[in-house]
From TrEMBL, chain A:
This is RT30 protein. The keyword Ribosomal protein applies. Its main location: mitochondrion. The gene is Mrps30. It is found in: Mitochondrion. It comes from Callaeas wilsoni (North Island kokako).
Automatic annotation (TrEMBL), chain B:
Its main location: mitochondrion. GO terms for molecular function: structural constituent of ribosome. GO terms for biological process: translation. Belongs to the mitochondrion-specific ribosomal protein mL37 family. This is Large ribosomal subunit protein mL37.
Amino acid sequence: MAALGARRLLRPGRRWFSETVPGAPSPPASPLYPPVVASITAKSRSAKSRRLQRFNQRVHAAATVEEKLRLYGKLQRPKYTVYPQTFALNADRWYRSFTKTVLVPGMPPRAAAAKPPVAAAEATLEAGRAPEPGAEAVGAAEAPEAAKSPEPAAGAAPHLDIGELRSLACDALLQESFYQNKKRPFLYRDQDHTPGPFLTQLVSTLAASLSSRNPLLAASSLDLNPEVNYYWHHGEEVVVHGHRKGRVDPVRFQIDDNPHLQIRVPKQLPKVVPLESDLGDVPVIDHKPSKLPLFKKQYENKVFIGSKVADPCCYGHTQFHLLPDKLKRERFIRERLEDQIEVVYRSNGIASLFAWTAAQAMYQGFWSEADVTRPFVSQAVVTDGKYFAFFCYQLNTLALTAETIKNSSRKNICWGTDSKPLYDVVEDGNVKGFNDEVLLQLVRFLLNRPKEL
Amino acid sequence: VFPGVRQAQWLTKTKLVEGLPPAVQGILDNPVHGLQELEERAKYAVSHARLWDTAEVAPRREQYCPLLFENLIHTCRLMSGKYPSLSKRMLARNFRIAATWERESILLQVRGLSGILMNSMTPIPPVASKEEILATKEHVLETFYPIAPTIDLQEVNVYKELNDTGQCFRDGYPYSHPHTLFFLESANVRTDRFRPEQLRAKMLMFAFGNALAKAKALHGNDPKVLEQPVVVQSVGTDGQLFQFMVFQLNTTDLVSNDGVKNLVWIDSDQNLYEKAQCVPEVKKKVVTKPAGISGFQPDTFKKFLALYLHGTV
């Protein structure tokens, strides 16, 4: 206050006792005193918000994406580990609420470009089903008749030889389950014995034979057993015990996922619906996440899509998940929880795809304070070896923390189907009851590409 | 202890030819196959396996060796967009082989997990002409007198003479011709890995075992000179050094030391790249070695691809 008084006396041209019009005192070019802001180190709410702002500015100002990721996950605190493959009841509702996702049943409407080859394939389907599906096992002898039926005027795209693809799939299945002599499966490791290798063979041969049709596949990278991690905050809670008791903390989550197979591409898949679309509601759950059950652990906060930031194939195309023995259908049926079978597939699809797309978005420099400017789309196939469920995920927003979620009305969207069997049974070198729909959907997934290609 | 390939040659009655056979060389030199464009993809495959795959700083050999192999095979398989008959191949992992033969009254047997086998529906046509096969009659096998040729081999009482790859695959398997065997030396510790010479010997023994089993399945158990020689290829690597081998089985008459011999072409110690630097090396604040793959040799990848395409193009 004394300083202010001194300034008034010192101001030039001002006389208390004269009528002279004072020359307009030129406002000081810059304030003489620093702005009055909250402290950084005090134990107060304003100090906390100032610290948060400084942190956000540091992350915004980071020079490289690696530096951004390092700062983002620097502070380690106990966090909930979210497992995509879980036996928890109704886990998919919880996961949708954690990730602000809307579940839309069925597959998204495909662009017209994919329709002509598929239409021709359907025409061949009817012709192809007439010879009994059971004899499809060895060679493609019956298939050429089906494949040669002329395609309706579909333009330049050559029609899809579904018979050829069917024989590839059947050969992969038979090799793994019938022809190759293997030792007995290890206890509770049935999935590694037959369905795992079958899925690997199927995807690698299908991707290779479809690469002529889809140039994106020709530039893709196939990862076997990769690791996908993502760390995020959602909601707030009060710390219950410990030296930080009573403070309001964000609820932290971490997904550590190991898909069986993953295809990464250098160009992004096209968006399915516009960024701001609203296709449903996100479930709101009033309980604490630990009621799911979900447990807290403190370890490294990793964000990883399967390879480092320097990799040119930084966008995701399709993931393939294999359900472990612990979550097999017979177990659910035995415990009279039939409705939970689909929940397993859905929760796996939602959690894994959210983690993957969000990690891809972080690799491009977006994070919860700098929300995505374009939607990130990826696909996933969840299977237990016989039943296949297909998922397509569009990430519209990363803003899930307590402050940013208020300002953002965008929701992430997940399209998903129910699980359908690919075949009925394998006997004596024959695949019985092969379901072409499932194969066709898989092929459509693999052929998905941006419009310019 | 012994140069392994020479010993293996005696055991399998084989004549060695350095370099790759002319059929494979022809695929290499043919520009139609577009091997140049794939150089980019090969470099990406190496960088991905050696540098980018893991969230840690540098992947270990147990991780990057199989991954490099998978990436290279994926790149080769993508060629089946261009040559649809390439999709008539199937990879079999964890594959067991057993073959028995007699060599100058010593009973020998090859057994075990031989890595990864690629099968195809059609056999590889013979790479050596009839004249070359007959010329091997004059070739004298190197003996190691006074050292017995079975030194360092495990002597075992064999109760069942197991004899076929039919042991591993059931009848009616459509992909019945073994095409290429892949051996990955991916142990982290150097002493657990085979040295290149021993790896080549192992490749020769297993290629011979597979070819012999196939020949006995096709032509019966009697020892004779084969009208249609059986060709099996083999590739061994430790993540950086590659050994390429093409083996042609001309005869199953292995008891005597004369007559037609089998042929093997070996291209050894091909480096795919010199060094993979994960973190840039900085000495006194100056970057001496930047991060990345240095000394990439596209020819090694081209040979890999040529062996893959062999038999179909």
